[in-house]
């Protein structure tokens, strides 16, 4: 990391107390980027169901476009994923997904909504991981179709899109 920043290895520790603090700062920077990319289209969506689609498309799109940071954030060793910044962000996203699942009528109770939101989150991570592993292979379907299909499994079919067409994975 020091070489990439153009400084000596010891200079890094002038800014960070420890290796763990450095890693947490890197994670927080990547999480901030991911949050910005995911929250912007989600906030622009109208209905809870549209927010679910927008969130899912933006998350998977970010993961595929930023594979190194994605792997660091979501496929790294457990102690990295349990940092305060990562844990807080994951909890916020699961809570927002649960709220939208309830508002969209997919589930009624809070506990059921949280469980379904965690399962949707896991399924979306699975799409990113599978697409990353098979980057050299042509998929049978467009990734957008896979993402929207997965959201439909957890939230029910989308309505009201006949005129505008389906949303796409953000560039």
TrEMBL record:
Keywords from the named record: DNA-binding, Transcription, Transcription regulation
InterPro entries reported for this sequence: Homeodomain-like_sf, HTH-type_TetR-like_transc_reg, HTH_TetR, MT1864/Rv1816-like_C, Tet_transcr_reg_TetR-rel_C_sf
Membrane keyword on record: no
Coiled-coil stretches: none
Keyword Transcription appears in the UniProt entry: yes
Domain HTH tetR-type residues, every copy: 1-34
Pfam families attached to this UniProt entry: TetR_C_33
Name of this protein: TetR-like C-terminal domain-containing protein
Origin species: Streptomyces chisholmiae
